[in-house]
Amino acid sequence: MEIDENGVLRLKGRIKAAKDVSFTLNRPAVLSGDSSIAKLIMKHYHERFNHGNHNTVMNEIRQKYYITSLRSKLRKIAHECQWCRINRSLPKMPSAEGDLPPERLRHHQPPFTCTGVDYFGPMSVTIGRRHEKRYGALFTCLTTRAVHIELAESLSSDSMILALRRFIARRGTPSDVFGQRHEFRRRKQRTDEHTRGTREDEERSRRPHHNLEVYLPALRTWVAPGSVWCDLSKPRWPLH
Ligand SMILES: [Zn+2]
């Protein structure tokens, strides 16, 4: 390398004798890849050659300049170039979603015909001089997404049944109630088996409604935690 009469650092080439070779090709100016002038030069060539591939741009730059770390610096220039970003980006395709189950599509039927239920809380309440926990039972219509909230004293089954009874007294009997792990379906026909025996009678009297049967189905994808009513019961504000 040598410094010319203008103070520019240049590579000292060995092809001085070659004909039809420009002065800058024989003695290109040496520039640091981190310098601002080198970045401007690379950006200029990048745009001049239509944001093309790096080899073309590198070849054109090396006709006049020797820029250190040229390939990696050019890659960085192309990465930051807005035109290249837009050109590289792909249109966003909507994610494929499965069909809704029939319980979500009960149109022309009363609200809460198909209902999902989940608890939220606990909330601390003051009774006299003591503090106790209370839970909110959130019922939501799977079709209209209407919401009904009942207060539950505890996480026990009796507390849940009482909350469900109050809900039914206010909103009517749903045909299907889905919990996180439980499913209640309206019984279509009473069988003799269910009407026999004192224990079964006792069990039936404890049910929230005589027309509702309790099922424990295998968890379905949309019944699993994170489905419609579980999302609703996540707290979005401090509960206490
Ligand atoms: Zn570009």
**What is the 3D shape?**
rod-shaped
Largest sheet: 6 strands, mixed
Helix residue percentage: 25-40%
Order of helices and strands: EEHEHHEHHEEEHEEHHEH
Rounded average pLDDT: 78
Hetero groups: zinc ion
Spans of at least 5 consecutive residues with low confidence: 188-200, 215-226
Topology, number of strands: 10
- The name of the CATH topology of the largest domain is Nucleotidyltransferase, domain 5
* Strand line-up of the largest beta sheet: 7-6-5-8-9-10
* CATH class (first level) name of the largest domain: Alpha Beta
Indicate the radius of gyration in whole angstroms: 37 Å
The number of helices is 9
The CATH architecture of the largest domain is 2-Layer Sandwich
What structural class should be given to the helix and strand makeup? alpha+beta
- First-to-last CA distance: 75 Å
Oligomer: single chain
Organism: Eumeta variegata
Region (Disordered): 179-207
InterPro entries: Integrase_H2C2 (IPR041588), RNaseH_sf (IPR036397)
Biased composition (Basic and acidic residues): 190-205
Write structural notes for this entry:
This protein is α+β, with helices and mostly antiparallel strands and 240 residues long. It contains nine helices and ten strands. The protein has two domains: 2-88, Endonuclease III, domain 1, CATH 1.10.340; 105-232, Nucleotidyltransferase, domain 5 (2-Layer Sandwich), CATH 3.30.420. It has helices at 23-26, 36-48, 54-61, 70-80, 82-88, 157-171, 192-195, 198-206, 228-232, and strands at residues 2-3, 9-10, 29-31, 65-67, 114-127, 130-141, 147-152, 176-178, 183-186, 212-215. It has a six-stranded mixed beta sheet with strand order 7-6-5-8-9-10. A hairpin with a 4-residue loop joins β8 (176-178) and β9. α2 crosses α4. Mean pLDDT is 78; it is low at 188-200 and 215-226. The chain binds zinc ion. Zinc ion (ZN) binds next to α5. Pfam families: Integrase_H2C2. Residues 179-207 are annotated as: Disordered. Residues 35-88 form the Integrase zinc-binding domain.
